[in-house]
Automatic annotation (TrEMBL), chain B:
One of its GO terms (biological process) is amino acid transport. It is a multi-pass membrane protein. It holds the Pfam family BPD_transp_1. The keyword Iron-sulfur does not apply. The chain crosses the membrane at residues 20-38, 50-71, 189-211. SUPFAM superfamilies: MetI-like. Belongs to the binding-protein-dependent transport system permease family. HisMQ subfamily. Residues 14-205 form the ABC transmembrane type-1 domain. It is found in: Cell inner membrane; Cell membrane. One of its GO terms (cellular component) is ATP-binding cassette (ABC) transporter complex. It comes from Halotalea alkalilenta. This is Ectoine/hydroxyectoine ABC transporter permease subunit EhuC. The keyword rRNA-binding does not apply. The lineage of its organism: Bacteria, Pseudomonadati, Pseudomonadota, Gammaproteobacteria, Oceanospirillales.
Length: 271, 223, 230
């Protein structure tokens, strides 16, 4: 990979890697995303924070094509995700198009979602072999390397059920990285973990994101991690980005009353 | 010790029963998966076909199905000029397999439904095709769930084979009737035959138990 | 009754129309056998379930064995056993009653499991709460456990009622003239099995679809939290 420096949020790049333009998502009467605009530059690490039910996870799920959008446009590297260009018109995407676009994305789930019937090794190699057509040898050497990076080289032949939550999530991260995605999506990766296991997972995310110069979009409740890790923090409320800026700015000098309120509630809970 | 002399012909019949059970259970299993997966297909004619098959064969009586295939189907064939006369063995295996397959289809459908949405999302995020997801993620997780119900259906099927004696197939129930006719020793003959069916059912159930233990190993491991 | 009725076999349609009345008479016998068999299964099943839950091993184990045996052996052979062996011991039952008895025995094993499942689904927390409130065991059973178990027992029993109905054709082998037996005789006489057997299939389909709908409706109507006794 090239050694470009991550773009800082105030110098907007010519073409963002991910762009949401006026994206709306409704379930019946309920509006989850409301005219959302969001750009993520290549190599940028963006964290989404906000109260539950604010639509944070929906952003990731729509991007991963797990849920459809109601209105608006999402582009990855200039190419529409949910649409295809036919002439100068935009048509709903075919399954083939969605598959092509999905290949650029990787996702880490809150509940890990490892395949319980496969060994750790198989969890990592199955998709590269079946979907990317890698040879067994290629897939295994890639898996060995990644398992070493996440500190689980000794656990390759265990089943997910034999691992701790923190270990499972590290496998989840390695599994997503096996596909060499351009953008990594983390959907509350530590919310399901016991408190003492959170650190090991965040450490792995941080190391790998730096090493692989990943573009990251993460939803999290770990405020101190968001502050140290992100290039930009977006505060979500009621399906919109209520406020965004550098971690310094958001955490020390939030402009909006709603942001201040949320951060106070999270950082200094009234006991 | 009169009863020992009954064992020869009864054993002959039991062997036919075992074969019938084996063939029709295999056929039924194939049909179960075909129709159970078909019911969840994205192609609507497949969905309709699977649903109709399941409804018709679950909704009518096995004995009616057996007689329809053996006695009525040739007449239907006659009407359109095709020879659809079936050998009793073929009619028996077909009726048993079609019948048990319709019940099995519901088991397969239920098993596939039990695979969590999260697993399917993980598969989609890794860009598996729907077919790969079915074969590599859903079915391997669903089959251990299905096995106990399949075991019950296999025993049900073994019991149902007795009905083929009514189209004069020489299975255990048929031989029993022959021996009884010949000896008039009803109590002994039928006690023996019931015990033989019971023994076969226990062996069959035991085999399914062994299968259950071998396919779901990942479910029993823990830290 | 069959000998008295003439049918018109000049075409499939006229045959179908002319045999419908006798088929419906057969259907009536099928329904009767279903209901009697089901009532017997409910009664025998209750006895089996009771014996299977007796604390004494010497009672419990034989009950379990009998239950397994009844469930794992073919209805047809059980029926022949009753039909040929009972008279040897001086018990002469009409064919219809022998058939209903066979259905009742075979399905008693299934019904005993239905009762057990329904009672076990009422959590031990309920029994503990009743004990904490100092209710008598009898009152606990009649007012706490049973009302919560019944909504689970009814739909499962309904499914077995339908299964019994589909097994009634087996009774034709001991000369019970239920729906299928009637159709078979018509087939033997007219050499046209296609029309009567297809009609039997269609009638069964209608009945099972109606029954499935009834079980579903009943299941939805039953209060999930239980039926309160006065």
């Amino acid at each position: 990979m090239s050694s470009q420096t991550p773009a800082s949020p105030d110098q907007t790049p010519a073409r963002p890697l991910v762009r949401f333009s006026k994206v709306t998502k409704r379930y019946g009467e309920h509006t989850v995303l409301d005219d959302l605009d969001l750009d993520v530059a290549a190599g940028e690490k963006v964290t989404i924070i906000g109260p539950s039910g604010s639509g944070k996870s929906t952003v990731l799920r729509i991007l991963m094509t797990l849920e459809t959008l109601t209105d608006g446009l999402i582009e990855i590297d200039g190419e529409p995700l949910w649409h295809e260009r036919r002439g100068d018109q935009l048509k709903p995407a075919s399954e083939a198009h969605l598959r092509k676009m999905r290949g650029q994305l990787g996702m880490v789930f809150q509940q890990f979602n490892l395949f319980p019937h496969m060994s750790v090794q198989r969890n990592l190699t199955e998709a590269p072999r079946q979907v990317l057509g890698l040879s067994r040898k290629e897939a295994q050497s890639r898996a060995t390397e990644l398992l070493e990076r996440v500190g689980l080289a000794d656990h390759a032949n265990k089943y997910p059920g034999q691992l701790s939550g923190g270990q499972q999530q590290r496998v989840g991260i390695a599994r997503a990285l096996m596909m060499r995605p351009r953008v990594m999506l983390f959907d509350e990766p530590t919310s399901a973990l016991d408190p003492e296991l959170v650190g090991e997972v965040l450490h792995v995310i941080r190391t790998l994101a730096d090493e692989h110069d990943l573009t990251v979009l993460m939803v999290t409740h770990e405020m101190s991690f968001a502050r140290r890790f992100s290039d930009r923090v977006c505060f979500f409320d009621k399906g919109r980005i209520h406020e965004q800026g550098t971690p310094e700015q958001i955490f020390t000098d939030p402009r909006e009353a709603r942001t201040r309120e949320f951060l106070r509630a999270v950082l200094e809970p009234d006991v | 010790m009169e009863w020992i002399s009954y064992l020869g012909p009864l054993w002959q019949g039991a062997w036919v029963t075992i074969q019938l059970t084996l063939y029709s259970t295999v056929l039924g299993a194939l049909l179960s998966f075909a129709a159970g997966i078909g019911k969840r297909s994205s192609i609507w004619p497949l969905r309709i076909l699977s649903a109709v098959y399941v409804e018709v064969f679950r909704g009518t009586s096995l004995l009616v199905q057996l007689f329809w295939l053996y006695f009525a189907l040739p007449l239907a064939g006659n009407a359109i000029g095709i020879d659809l006369r079936l050998d009793p063995v073929v009619a028996g295996v077909l009726a048993l397999g079609l019948n048990i397959g319709a019940y099995g289809a519901e088991v397969v459908r239920g098993g596939l439904k039990s695979v969590s949405q999260q697993q399917l999302e993980a598969a989609q995020a890794l860009n598996f095709t729907p077919r790969q997801t079915l074969w590599r993620i859903s079915l391997p997780q669903a089959i251990p769930e299905m096995l106990p119900a399949f075991g019950n259906l296999a025993v049900q099927n073994l019991k149902d084979t007795a009905l083929v004696s009514l189209i004069s197939l020489g299975d255990l129930a048929f031989r029993a009737e022959q021996v009884r006719n010949f000896t008039q020793d009803s109590a002994t003959v039928y006690t023996l035959v019931l015990l033989m069916y019971f023994g076969m059912a226990l062996v069959l159930a035991g085999m399914i138990k062994l299968l259950e233990m071998s396919v779901g190993r990942w479910r029993t491991v823990s830290r | 009754m069959l000998f008295a009725i003439a049918w018109d076999a000049s075409s499939s349609w006229s045959l179908a129309v002319s045999i419908l009345p006798i088929l419906l008479k057969g259907l009536w016998v099928t329904l009767q056998a279903t209901v009697v068999g089901f009532l017997l299964a409910m009664a025998f099943g209750l006895v089996l379930a009771g014996l299977k839950s007796v604390p004494l091993k010497i009672v419990r184990w034989p009950a379990k064995l009998v239950s397994e045996f009844l469930r794992d052996t073919p209805l047809l052979v059980q029926l022949f056993f009753l039909y040929y062996v009972l008279p040897d011991y001086g018990l002469l039952l009409p064919a219809f009653m022998t058939g209903a008895l066979a259905l009742g025995l075979q399905y008693s094993a299934y019904m005993s499991e239905v009762y057990r499942g329904g009672l076990e689904a009422v959590g031990s927390g309920q029994r503990e709460a009743a004990r904490a409130l100092n209710l008598t065991p009898v009152r606990t059973f009649t007012h706490i456990v049973l009302p919560q178990a019944v909504p689970r027992i009814i739909p499962a029993s309904g499914n077995y009622l339908v299964s019994i109905m589909k097994d009634v054709p087996v009774l034709s082998v001991v000369t019970v003239l239920e729906l299928f037996g009637v159709a078979r005789i018509i087939g033997d006489r007219t050499f046209n099995y296609l029309v009567p057997l297809s009609m039997v299939g269609a009638l069964y389909l209608i009945l099972t679809i109606l029954a499935a709908w009834a079980v579903r409706t009943l299941d939805q109507r039953l209060p999930k939290h239980g039926i309160a006794l006065r």
